Amino acid sequence: MDRDSRIITPREVEGMIADGRTIVILDEMVLRLDGWMGKHPGGQLAILHMVGRDATDEIKV
């Protein structure tokens, strides 16, 4: 998953979210989950609950 190894600041993450993107953090990576919203087995709310937050502990159970 080394598409773009640059450092993304919290302000940039906030900007992405303000632009309507569904962004979560996993293992220090910024993930855009827009395409996964309708496919998540737990439903969209499970993803929306973690937007802009570190979801590592939630995902790696």
Residue ranges: pLDDT <50 for 5 or more in a row? none
Tell me which CATH architecture applies here: Roll
CATH top-level class: Alpha Beta
Number of helices: 3
Order of helices and strands: HEEHH
Helix content: 25-40%
Structural class: alpha+beta
User: Strand-residue fraction?
Assistant: 5-15%
What strand order characterises the main sheet?
1-2
Using the alpha-carbon principal axes, give the shape: globular
Gyration radius, in Å: 11 Å
- What do we call the CATH homologous superfamily? Cytochrome b5-like heme/steroid binding domain
Number of domains: 1
Sheet of most strands: 2 strands, antiparallel
N- to C-terminal distance: 21 Å
Mean pLDDT reading: 91
Topology-level CATH name: Flavocytochrome B2, Chain A, domain 1
Pfam families: Cyt-b5
InterPro entries: Cyt_B5-like_heme/steroid-bd (IPR001199), Cyt_B5-like_heme/steroid_sf (IPR036400)
Protein name: Cytochrome b5 heme-binding domain-containing protein
Characterization of this structure:
This is Cytochrome b5 heme-binding domain-containing protein. InterPro entries: Cyt_B5-like_heme/steroid-bd (IPR001199), Cyt_B5-like_heme/steroid_sf (IPR036400). Residues 5-61 form the Cytochrome b5 heme-binding domain. It comes from Glomerella acutata. With 61 residues, this protein is α+β, with helices and mostly antiparallel strands. The protein has a single domain (10-59), classed as Flavocytochrome B2, Chain A, domain 1 (Roll), CATH 3.10.120.10. 30% of the residues lie in helices and 13% in strands. It is built from three helices and two strands, in the order H-E-E-H-H. The chain has helices at residues 10-18, 44-48, 56-59; strands at 23-26, 29-32. The protein has a two-stranded antiparallel sheet with strand order 1-2. Strand 1 and strand 2 form a beta hairpin. The longest helix has 9 residues, at 10-18. It is globular and about 30 Å long. The mean pLDDT is 91.
